């Protein structure tokens, strides 16, 4: 058998986080995801927060924020968020949803 050359495979992994009224924990959660997640990029979808979550998110330059003005529901937020991630990030390999308590979200 001929020996095959080594092939480097790069997979872009995008973190996707749904939030609502989580100003008190969102910064810490984002820091943890940034530090330990290994994500190429993080998308945060704000599902109609009425606290200071939008302000906290606006101060970050290392994430993409998509916001519903009113609560559209978990399912609609997932669909809209993945649509934005896939259409704005060519070459997306994996998109992983996370809840802001830093645990994987149930799909």
**N-end to C-end Cα span:** 44 Å
From the helix content, strand content and strand pairing, which structural class follows?
Answer: alpha/beta
Task: Work out the helix count.
Answer: 3
Which band does the percent of strand residues land in? 25-35%
Oligomerization: single chain
Rg, rounded, reads 16 Å
- Largest sheet, order of strands side by side? 3-2-1-4-5
Average pLDDT, all residues? 80
Q: Tell me the series of helices and strands, N- to C-terminal.
A: EHEHEHEE
CA-based shape: globular
As residue ranges, the low-confidence spans are: 101-107
Q: Please give the largest β-sheet.
A: 5 strands, mixed
Number of strands: 5
Helix content: 25-40%
Features of the shown structure:
single chain, 107 residues, alpha/beta, 5-stranded mixed beta sheet, 3 helices
SSE blueprint and pairings:
Layout: E1 12-19, H1 26-36, E2 41-47, H2 53-58, E3 63-68, H3 74-88, E4 92-99, E5 103-104
Parallel strand pairs: 1-2, 1-4, 2-3
Antiparallel strand pairs: 4-5
Would you kindly provide a written description of the structure presented here, covering whatever features stand out?
- This protein is an alpha/beta fold.
- Helix content is 30%, strand content 29%.
- The chain is built from 3 helices and 5 strands; from the N terminus they run E-H-E-H-E-H-E-E.
- Strands 3-2-1-4-5 form a 5-stranded mixed sheet, sandwiched between helices.
- Strand 2, helix 2 (53-58) and strand 3 (63-68) form a beta-alpha-beta unit.
- The longest helix is centred in the C-terminal third of the chain and has 15 residues, at 74-88.
- The chain is globular and about 55 Å long.
- Mean pLDDT is 80; it is low at 101-107.
């Amino acid at each position: 058998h001929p020996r095959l050359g080594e092939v480097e495979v790069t997979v872009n992994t995008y973190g996707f986080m749904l939030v609502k009224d989580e100003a008190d924990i969102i910064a810490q959660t984002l820091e943890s995801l940034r530090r330990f997640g290994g994500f190429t990029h993080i998308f945060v979808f704000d599902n109609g927060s009425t606290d200071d979550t939008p302000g906290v998110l606006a101060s970050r330059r290392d994430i993409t924020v998509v916001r519903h003005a009113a609560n559209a529901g978990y399912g609609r937020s997932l669909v809209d968020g993945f649509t934005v991630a896939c259409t704005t990030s060519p070459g997306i390999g994996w998109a992983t949803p996370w809840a802001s308590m830093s645990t994987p979200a149930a799909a």
